[in-house]
């Protein structure tokens, strides 16, 4: 499909720079078989059915944004994917000033050797020393806010809490599974009281989620791989949800992508551990999920293609036009949609 089919115009003032307070006060655009409704995230328990199950991503964002120097050159690095105990794949700013074998000093006693430049421009960074890399990043790194936020303001101490979900447990993401940012303990309790279950899986979100689609046709776009895991017990419980007539509703596109990667042709969820580079566009047959809660996505992005595959391109274009007209807040810190095809 032509990528420009997924384009739309978003006024800059619709991009949220801070999350709603409290988190579940964010607005919720519901699209289902009955039409379109403007609600709030706190209304979610009344939009689902007893027996349904929400699936959250329990990945935890690490401070993966680094600023350093190679000699006199200023170098910025955004870690993308772990490749070994001390090696991370990174997207590098001012990469032309970095050669294989160069040492980049990131301050606070943290340095890394650059190697293995790939076609996508990424570079492998091997961190020096014996300390766990996670401790080095706590000293030298900052939260990797999406470029559409970081371009308007610098990350600060508040982002260390704001850009982390209440389910965050497994360290390794360089971007938050932002749909789950809307959840609070009170909302989760209300969902439980309404008979709506929840499960967690792990997908370590990479910086590739923010890369623009440069190809003119979706067939020519290459997705970056991300590591994920669904254990056998979780898969068994999710299959039991469907066997009882409940629906599996992914919270966030990351949860959805892993569920679809693990799904079998007969709509069962199998245990999964490894990389996934699944790319979902209109025409895809969904097997792992029955619905999705997600934020509002970038034009021409793989994530807008995904929601268009779930609900139909014309309906999502109309829904986004409605959201813009009604002044919904977009992107990572913005409002949410509940999509029930």
TrEMBL record:
Name the chemical reaction catalysed here.
7-aminomethyl-7-carbaguanosine(34) in tRNA + S-adenosyl-L-methionine = epoxyqueuosine(34) in tRNA + adenine + L-methionine + 2 H(+)
User: Which Gene3D superfamilies does its entry note?
Assistant: QueA-like (2.40.10.240)
Query: Record keywords: Transferase included?
Result: yes
- The domain of life is Bacteria
User: Which SUPFAM superfamilies does the entry link to?
Assistant: QueA-like
EC assignment: the record states 2.4.99.17
User: Does the record bear Cytoplasm in its keywords?
Assistant: yes
Q: What class of enzyme is it?
A: transferase
What the record says about family reads:
Belongs to the QueA family.
Q: What is an example of a Pfam family matching this protein? A: Queuosine_synth
Q: In which pathway does it act?
A: tRNA modification; tRNA-queuosine biosynthesis
What's the protein here called? S-adenosylmethionine:tRNA ribosyltransferase-isomerase
GO CC annotation terms, alphabetical: cytoplasm
Subunit architecture = Monomer.
Q: Which GO terms describe its molecular function?
A: S-adenosylmethionine:tRNA ribosyltransferase-isomerase activity
